[in-house]
Please model this.
Amino acid sequence: MLKINRKYAIVLAIVACSSFQAEAKAASISMLGTANNFGVLGGSTVTNTGPSVIMQSLGVNAGSSATGFSPGIVNGTIFTSDPVAAQAQLDNATAYNYLAALSPTKELTGLDLGGMTLTPGVYSFSSSAQLTGKLTLDNLGDPNALFVFQIASTLTTASYSSVVTTNGEAANVFFQIGSSATLGTYTQFKGNILALTSITLTTGVNIECGRTLAQNGAVTMDTNNVSSTCDTKPQEMAVVPEPDSSLGVLGSGMMGLVFAFRKRFRKGW
Model:
């Protein structure tokens, strides 16, 4: 029986091992899909009073009415009851269901969000949620930090309330609401509102970093700014192997060994 030279045995082991160590990469998807491109998305209608400004696109589906633009300004495109708006609503619903299914890290039912400082996590309300004053979100220096508020019923903010972030911008802030949201006058808000029914922005409300996405009902605006100055960061949803590269290494390595063995065999072991 031929004995394989120790040097070649080591090389063979290294090549074989490397062939099965394909680099794993995270398959990242945007949390909101194509809805990420919309500052305002309504189900039945979007109505506006006053000189509101929407920095991204506006969409309505399955309804087809978007009124009050002008005097309102949409810096993107208005899509009503068309394939673009329909896809955005599908992605909105997918994100809503995903957020609703997350396991809560803390229960806040019955507590006012005002005055709280929260770190990344999933916060649950089994009924309605109230914000009176300032809610501070500390992302601990992680630009991809995820904040999720699961609210079974309604979200209501008092006048002059605010959501602020510390230790960097927090782009991935989501309020998943089982009914409707009403933001009180002059609320300064950060976060993406995904409401199953409707969203009302009263006079002077500003969405500094986020979106208002209503699945089935209306979005009502009155002299508001929806700035969407930050895009939601992709969330790592799965791990997949890096294809092909290891197979190339294995193939070239094996071919090299074949020629080496043939050469040594001719010379004698």
